[in-house]
Write a structure and sequence with these properties.
By secondary structure, the chain is of the alpha+beta class. Helices cover about 45% and strands about 20% of the residues.
Length: about 160
């Protein structure tokens, strides 16, 4: 399962949980209101005049809580677009005298194609690590073929989704 899909499921689960909490609070308020009204049932109460519906929901109502939750979800989605959540890794043998594909290049990007490409080149004697900034799926620094491959994987993934 991709991290984007997992994040979407997480947001949806959070929304459902908060919605259930709002309904539970409303049910408790209604229940406490009916017990008070049962005691007062003996005295006739004049029927209140019907007021025209107001466009803004009253604070504390389900409708106002749903509007607040909707706004919070939109803010969260906006923040999520800017997190490094897309990852692609390419493993390879950088030198002919080593095996096991110990060298690797990894692209970490947000929804806009901004992020970083990390590379570790491993030989028998040492390992070197490089980081290159990525803006809109491109880098000012020269990328290796493996770094390009990792970046291209995420570019294609973003075009599909």
């Amino acid at each position: 399962m991709s991290s984007t899909l997992a994040g979407a499921f997480g947001i949806a689960a959070l929304f459902v949980a908060v919605l259930a909490l709002v309904f539970a609070i409303q049910a408790l308020r209604a229940q406490s209101g009916t017990s008070k009204s049962a005691k007062l049932a003996a005295t006739p109460v004049p029927e209140p005049e019907q007021e025209p519906e107001q466009p803004a929901a009253k604070p504390g109502t389900v409708r106002s809580e749903l509007r607040k939750l909707g706004k919070e979800i939109e803010v969260t989605r906006g923040e999520l677009r800017e997190t490094l959540q897309h990852l692609a890794m390419v493993r390879y043998d950088a030198f002919g005298d080593t095996g096991g594909k110990l060298s690797w290049s990894m692209a970490l990007l947000d929804d806009n194609g901004d992020g970083v490409v990390l590379t570790s080149i491993n030989s028998r004697a040492d390992a070197r690590t490089y980081a290159k900034e990525i803006k809109a799926f491109t880098s000012e620094a020269k990328l290796s073929p493996e770094e390009e491959e990792a970046l291209e994987t995420l570019r294609k993934e973003s075009e599909q989704g």
